[in-house]
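Why do we care about 3D structure at all? Because function follows from shape, and shape follows, mostly, from sequence. That is the central idea of this module. The next example makes it concrete: a single protein chain, its amino acid sequence, and then its structure expressed as tokens.
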Amino acid sequence: MTELPQTATQHAFIALAPPDDAKNELAHALSTAYAAHPDLRWNRIEDWHITLAFLGELPVQTVHRLRSPLADLAAARPPLRLALLGGGQFDERVLWSGIEGDLEGLHALAEAVRARVRDCDIAFTERPLRPHLTLARARRYDNASVTAAAACLDGFTGSPWRTERLHLVGSTVRGHSGPRRYQDIDAWSLVDSRRTVTPPLKESRHRTGPTRQTG
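And the structure:
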């Protein structure tokens, strides 16, 4: 394996990922949108995630400094019970699916993650947490497809699932030939021994995600 230079950088974020069953449910619900809007820049299903903290571009060595603090955090946090719900759009440019369930726990986990990043003296832009999965982005000339694709998810309600692992995700290193790809740098089970029972998913159905997002 080629050793990376000291100056190597990559984009990184910390996230949760739905299990395959939940992603497959959503992919099936998107089948009409896939067929009707092939020109959208669709995210790969393996890249679907709920971002807890986006770190931007950092030196690779800096990103790896987070592994131990995040492992300790995951060992002290319980799994959450979530589900995918419906769809929406940001400024007619970004298609997303919403999240429901233990949103209070999700926000608490995100804040705990961001606190660990701050404790490592890593600077990053802290945006309000708007839980969602980003599914696709519009091309410059297309101002209609995202809204139409979001309508294909009206009425979609996914099965509940547990957030089993906390993921530290990194892109291919800057300067790498070809498209930027993301993969796990590491992932840790959420195994808080103080809570062995995950609260049931609430009956109320509400969609998360803002009507617009700036970035």
